[in-house]
Amino acid sequence: MQSDLWLEEKYKNFIGYRYKINKTLFSGKSEFQSVDVVETEGLGKMLLNDGLVMVTEKDEFVYHDMITHVPMFTHPHPENVLIIGGGDGGTAREVLRHKSVKKCVMVEIDKMVVDACKEHIPQTSKDLNHPKLELIIDDGLEYVKNTTLKFDVILIDSTDPIGPAAPLFNSAFYQNVKKCLTSNGIVVSQGESVFFESHMQQVLLGILGEHFSKVSIYNYSNLTYPGGLWSFTYASDTLDPIKNFNEARVTSSNLKFNYYNEQIHRAAFALPSFMKAKVQHLLKN
Amino acid sequence: MQSDLWLEEKYKNFIGYRYKINKTLFSGKSEFQSVDVVETEGLGKMLLNDGLVMVTEKDEFVYHDMITHVPMFTHPHPENVLIIGGGDGGTAREVLRHKSVKKCVMVEIDKMVVDACKEHIPQTSKDLNHPKLELIIDDGLEYVKNTTLKFDVILIDSTDPIGPAAPLFNSAFYQNVKKCLTSNGIVVSQGESVFFESHMQQVLLGILGEHFSKVSIYNYSNLTYPGGLWSFTYASDTLDPIKNFNEARVTSSNLKFNYYNEQIHRAAFALPSFMKAKVQHLLKN
C-alpha cells in the first residue's frame, strides 16, 4: 500500500502549504532548531528548519542565483567573499563558480544543517569541501565582531528573523558587517516578502541606511516561499547595483545560470508600486 | 467556540494550498463549474472555480494590473477592448480606468460567476454596470467567431486549460481573435506558470506564432497562484511591448496602480534563464 504522507508549513496562522513526501531522510533537533530533510513527491529533496521550508531541489537555484550573482557581477573583481548562514551550501556553490574568487569564508551556526545537507542534499552541498572554502561552525554575529579579515562581498543567507537568525536583523550586526567590508564592498541579505513582511523589510532597509550610502532591494519568485514575491536587500558605500553593473562581465564569465541573467539583474530592481510605497523612502542611491 | 475551517487547493497531487476561512458566502454549481465565494482569515474574500483560487481581495490587483495595463499602455490609443472571461470584473474595472476607452465588451460564459461576484466581491465587480461596458453572457469562442466588431485590445482572462476554458487554448480560437483585432491590435492571454506548466506555455506561444508576427511572454507574481512565477502571453502584428512602449503615456494618464508602473512594464519581459530555454525559440519580435 502506498503511504500518503504530507508535511505542512503554516504561515501567519491562516495559510498552510502542504507537500506530499515519500520519505523522511533526516530528522534532528540541534541546539538551535529542528532540522529535517525529506524527499518530496514533486519538488525533490527538501530541507526544513523549525518546520519552515528552506530549500528544495526543484527551485533552490532561484534563491541561490539571486543572492549570489547580483552582487558578484556588480563588484568589478570580488576576491574574498563571506557567507553568514547558508548551511545547505547552495550559496557557496554559486560563489565558487566565479573565477575571481580567491577565498570564500562561510560561517554557519548550526553544524546539524551542514551535516544533514552534506549527507542528503549533494545538489546544494557538493562544494562544501572546495579548497577555496573555509567553513566555520560559529555564530556569524561573533565572527563579524572578531575577525580582522576584509571581504569584497558579504552574503547574509539567513532564515527569517525568528529563531537563530533574529540577531542578524540588527544595527550592531551591520556595523560589524561594514567593518568587515572593503571600501568597495557589498552586502546582500535575505529580505523577506513584501506581501506580509514589509515591516521587517522597512526595519532592515532602515538599518542598512544607517551604515551605507547606497541601499536597494530587489525581488525574485520561487516555488516554495510563502507570499510569491521575495526579496534581497543590497547595500554598499560605492557601488550601485544598476549604474555600476557591467553586463559584459556576465558574458565574458562564460557562466550559465538557471535563473540569473543580465536582464533579470536589472529587472529585479523594478519594484511594484505597492512595494515602492512601503520602501522607496528608505532606498538610497 | 471559534470554528477552525480551512479550504484546500490541491495542485499536481503533491502540493496543497490551505486557507483558513471565516465563512462561506456563496456556493453553487453552474452548467460549467462549481463556484464558491468565501471570506478568508487573511486574504479577504476569495473566488474559487472548481476549487481553484481565482481571485482574492488581497492580491487580485497584481493579476488585473498586469493583464490590462501592459497592452493598454503599449497600444497608442485603445478605444475598443474585448475581454473574454474575467467574470469577477477586475479586468473590466482596470480597462475602464483608461480615458481613451470608448467601449469595453466582456464575454463571460458563466453567469453564476458574475452574479456571485456582483453580490459578494464589489472590490472586483464594482464597474460591471459601467455605461461603457457591454457585458455578454456567452461562449467567448462563439462570440469571436460571429462578431463583426474590431477591437484594439483583446484580453483572454481565462482559467486554466481544463474545464470551460480548455477550447481557448486552440489555434482556431486565435484565428478568430485575430479577425476581431484592428491592424494595430494586441491580444494578451493568461499564460500559466513556467515551473509546472511550461508545456502549456509552449503550446500557447506556438499557436500565437501561427497568427501573429510579434509574440512575447511576461511574468508576474501574486500570493495565491501555485508555482510563484505566472505569466501572460502577448501577441500583435505591429506593436512590440518594449520598443513601442511610450512611458510618457503612463505618466500623462495620471493613473496610479498598486502593482503596475513603467519599470515593471519593462522588467516583466525579462525572463529567467530556465524559462528562456523553454520558450525563447517561440518568441517573435
Structure notes:
- The structure is a homodimer of 285-residue chains.
- Chain A is α/β, with parallel strands linked by helices.
- Chain A folds into two domains: 51 residues, Roll (Spermidine Synthase, Chain: A, domain 2), CATH 2.30.140; 223 residues, Vaccinia Virus protein VP39 (Rossmann fold), CATH 3.40.50.150.
- Helix content of chain A is 30%, strand content 32%.
- Chain A is built from ten helices and twelve strands.
- The first copy, chain A, has a seven-stranded mixed β-sheet, with helices on both faces. Chain A has a five-stranded antiparallel β-sheet with strand order 1-2-3-4-5.
- In chain A, strand 1 and strand 2 form a beta hairpin.
- In chain A, helix 6 crosses helix 7.
- The first copy, chain A, is globular.
- Chain A starts with a strand and ends in a 6-residue tail after the last helix.
- The mean pLDDT of chain A is 95.
- Chains A and B meet through strand 2, helix 9 and helix 10 of A and strand 2, helix 9 and helix 10 of B.
- Strand 2 of chain A pairs antiparallel with strand 2 of chain B, so a sheet runs across the interface.
Q: Characterize the biggest β-sheet of chain A.
A: 7 strands, mixed
Query: Compute the gyration radius of chain A: what is it?
Result: 18 Å
Number of E-type strands of chain A? 12
Number of helices of chain A: 10
Instruction: Specify the CATH class of the largest domain in chain A.
Output: Alpha Beta
Unreliable segments of 5+ consecutive residues of chain A: none
Strand-and-helix sequence of chain A, N→C?
EEEEEHEHEHHEHEHEHEEHHH
The mean pLDDT of chain A is 95
